[in-house]
Design a protein that fits this description.
This protein is an alpha/beta fold and about 130 residues long. Helix content is about 45%, strand content about 20%. Strands 2-1-3-4-5 form a five-stranded parallel β-sheet, with helices on both faces. The model has no long low-confidence stretch (mean pLDDT about 90). Keywords: Phosphoprotein.
């Protein structure tokens, strides 16, 4: 049985998802969703996820809306969903990171994606 931790990549850009899959390589298992609706559906299906890499700027449902739905479900679910969430965004200012953390994100990764930063954030949260 595969014991690698599972990461849900949520990004509307296939290129970004592909880059992240390359970074995660054989160290982690991963699933991918191309929008917030798919991410919420996957979580609702009780798929075991150890961490979510969540794009903030997506059409239809942005990352902050996904977080809000997840927090609401934590309050009403019999078995709360408590998945660490790392915001991913092109908004790379310190204020953007502070805002993401203040609303309940567990980390922040600026785009374009930096391999070392991704590894640093994953290690700090998952290990």
């Amino acid at each position: 049985m595969d014991k690698r931790q599972k990461i849900l990549i949520v990004d509307d850009s296939k290129l970004n998802r592909d880059i992240l899959k390359e970074i995660l390589g054989e160290t982690y298992n991963y699933l991918e969703a191309e929008n917030g609706n798919q991410a919420i559906q996957m979580i609702g299906e009780n798929i075991e996820i150890d961490l979510m890499l969540l794009d903030i700027n997506m059409p239809q449902m942005n990352g902050f809306e996904v977080l809000k739905i997840m927090k609401r479900s934590q309050c009403i679910a019999e078995t709360p969903v408590n998945i660490p969430i790392v915001a991913m965004t092109a908004n790379a200012f310190k204020e953007d990171e502070e805002m993401a953390l203040s609303v309940g994100m567990n980390g922040h990764i600026a785009k374009p994606i930096d391999v070392d930063k991704v590894e640093q954030v994953l290690c700090s949260i998952l290990r």
